[in-house]
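Fill in residues.
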């Protein structure tokens, strides 16, 4: 018997994982043009196509008051006019120049008009492409987390009736042709883009966000300090040096103000007028890095722990996940202190470390956050029934990588097992695949062979499902679907059956069509009952549908019709031996279906035309026989329990 562990404790070294971690995954996968595959409690099942999914209403834009703007009110007015007249606008410029503040002011103005929409920020550790943006937009419009790319033409049709929805893409690197296609896919939406470079095709709606002018910087700094900054005051702040070192970037100017406010000497001099002497600080030392370091060193211990964790795991964190990641019971409230020191930027409830602050942490050479503490805290939070919304899934990857680097093999194996379903639930298939690789490495290094085999198998199947062509995805779906999962749990006979029937197909075309056919059959679902005895007739029914080499002889429609009739006759004989009316009815019903299929096959033929190569024709007919064989297996297993 496999030993189990309570959350937060380690299982015995070498103990295998609970079976089939992928069975806990949730997410959405597109296979083909019409059907989606969603992972529910038991596994992947077929869901409606993209065009049939209901649209989710867009959310009201935030009405929170934006940060004060300094010299940029006219820019906000121009962007609003572009959105109204042209349907799109772009803000571009260097990081930290204030694109976020302008964007938030635009959102506030749109919200005042009753505007609704969605805001997409870049996912940490993931390349932004047109396909990934369309997948994420499909997710917010339809309330699903897609794991594979969506079909652009189907998406365009599905959202054709959408109007009056605003979309903001933060730090969007898409080029002109991609943005043109994106706008064509969502013609009823307005777009606001922020990026480093100008890429919007309509150059008249592109606005370069420049660093603050000297006057605007003076105004911002005075507002941050709460002081009237006349010429003498500016001199005492070494303003020329500050303005030069900050490059006019609001983010750095705000941090310099926080540095000044944190100075005991500055507080002592607050009441002195005029400020006829500069503070006793060497202005040449007031680089952005030194400011950030001084502010970081002065943090309380909870805030410092969170700051170090943000740098260690290189992932933005919501405040609710501070404590699970750091292990500090007082760390949940550290966000405000970090914001006051301007070491982080806050988007909603998520805190992003600034580049200067990250460099300051590294320059101080503080020990990194403990990955083992983070892993245990995250797993405990995952198990909570009413926990907070999950963090960016990139966190799971960096924690697992840190565990690997620390050679904590057993904990890495456990953490990957818990984190993969969370990553897939968030639509982060690539992260899930990387986690599988880390789990495989850890299991191998830790001598946990069964777990290594488990991760090898699941990584391969999931990769085929997420990245493979239709045949590979469908074949993986067969194993990951509830049909296969339940049957394997109850003796593995379906898995053995699939192995036999797929072995009968020799051509590439036959294997491709068979894989798709198998997936279609598997997705219909099988209920496997358990009992201590086998009802009369079941053994004969199972023997009737057990595959043999007769599939090789199916090369024409007449051959396939004859195969259906042979199986129907064998099932009739099995039904005649059944004493349970439910068993007899189920078996006989499948026999009747096969006879109907035989008649139709002989009457209508294969419909392929005269120019198809005989081997291809044979492969396609064999795949049809395979699909119906699985349907027969499903029908029998519904009424015949395993031994």
């Amino acid at each position: 018997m496999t030993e189990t562990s309570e959350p937060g404790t380690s299982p015995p070294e070498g103990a295998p994982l609970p079976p089939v971690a992928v069975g806990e995954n949730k997410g959405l996968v597109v296979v083909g043009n019409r059907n989606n595959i969603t992972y529910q409690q038991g596994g992947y099942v077929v869901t409606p196509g993209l065009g049939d999914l209901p649209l989710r209403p867009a959310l009201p834009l935030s009405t929170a008051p934006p940060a004060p703007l300094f010299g940029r009110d006219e820019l906000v007015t121009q962007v609003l006019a572009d959105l109204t007249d042209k349907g799109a606008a772009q803000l571009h410029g260097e990081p930290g120049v204030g694109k976020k503040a302008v964007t938030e002011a635009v959102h506030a103005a749109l919200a005042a008009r009753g505007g609704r929409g969605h805001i997409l920020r870049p996912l940490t550790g993931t390349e932004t492409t047109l396909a990934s943006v369309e997948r994420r937009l499909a997710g917010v419009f339809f309330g699903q987390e897609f794991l594979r790319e969506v079909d652009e033409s189907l998406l365009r049709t599905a959202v054709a009736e959408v109007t009056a929805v605003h979309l903001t893409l933060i730090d969007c690197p898409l080029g002109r042709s991609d943005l043109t296609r994106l706008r064509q896919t969502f013609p009823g939406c307005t777009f606001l883009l922020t990026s480093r470079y100008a890429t919007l095709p309509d150059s008249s709606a592109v606005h370069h966000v420049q660093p603050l002018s000297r006057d605007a910087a003076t105004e911002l700094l005075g507002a941050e300090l709460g002081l009237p900054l006349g010429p003498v005051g500016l001199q005492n702040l070494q303003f020329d040096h500050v303005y030069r070192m900050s490059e006019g970037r609001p983010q750095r100017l705000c941090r310099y103000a926080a540095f000044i406010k944190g100075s005991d000497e500055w507080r002592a001099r607050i009441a002195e007028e005029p400020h006829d002497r500069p503070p006793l600080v060497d202005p040449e030392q007031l680089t952005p890095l030194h400011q950030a370091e001084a502010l970081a060193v002065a943090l309380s211990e909870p805030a410092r722990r969170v700051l170090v964790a943000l740098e260690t795991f290189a992932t933005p964190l919501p405040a609710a996940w501070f404590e699970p990641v750091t292990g500090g019971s007082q760390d949940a409230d550290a966000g405000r202190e970090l914001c006051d020191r301007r070491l982080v930027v806050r988007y909603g409830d998520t805190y992003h470390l600034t580049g200067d602050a990250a460099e300051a942490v590294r320059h101080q050479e503080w020990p990194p956050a403990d990955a083992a503490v983070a892993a245990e805290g995250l797993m405990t939070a995952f198990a909570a029934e009413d926990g907070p919304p999950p963090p960016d899934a990139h966190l799971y990857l960096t924690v697992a990588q840190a565990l690997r680097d620390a050679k904590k093999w057993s904990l890495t194996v456990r953490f990957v097992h818990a984190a993969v379903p969370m990553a897939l639930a968030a639509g982060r298939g690539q992260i899930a695949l990387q986690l599988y690789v880390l789990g495989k490495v850890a299991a191998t290094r830790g001598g946990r062979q069964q777990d290594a085999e488990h991760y090898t198998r699941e990584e391969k199947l999931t990769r085929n499902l997420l990245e493979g062509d239709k045949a590979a995805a469908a074949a993986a779906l067969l194993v990951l679907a509830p049909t296969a999962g339940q049957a394997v749990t109850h003796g593995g006979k379906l898995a053995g059956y699939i192995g036999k029937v797929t072995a009968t197909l020799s051509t590439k075309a036959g294997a491709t069509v068979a894989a798709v056919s198998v997936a279609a059959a598997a997705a219909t679902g099988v209920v496997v009952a358990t009992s201590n005895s086998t009802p009369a007739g079941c053994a004969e029914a199972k023997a009737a549908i057990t595959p043999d080499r007769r599939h090789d002889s199916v090369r024409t429609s007449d051959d396939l019709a004859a195969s259906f009739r042979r199986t129907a006759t064998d099932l009739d004989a099995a039904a005649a031996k059944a004493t349970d009316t439910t068993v007899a009815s189920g078996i006989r019903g499948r026999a009747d279906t096969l006879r109907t299929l035989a008649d139709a096959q002989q009457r209508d033929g294969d419909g392929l035309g005269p120019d198809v190569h005989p081997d291809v024709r044979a492969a396609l007919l064999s795949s049809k026989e395979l699909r119906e064989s699985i349907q027969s297996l499903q029908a029998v297993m519904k009424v015949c329990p395993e031994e």
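Residues 420 and 590 are 39 Å apart (CA to CA).
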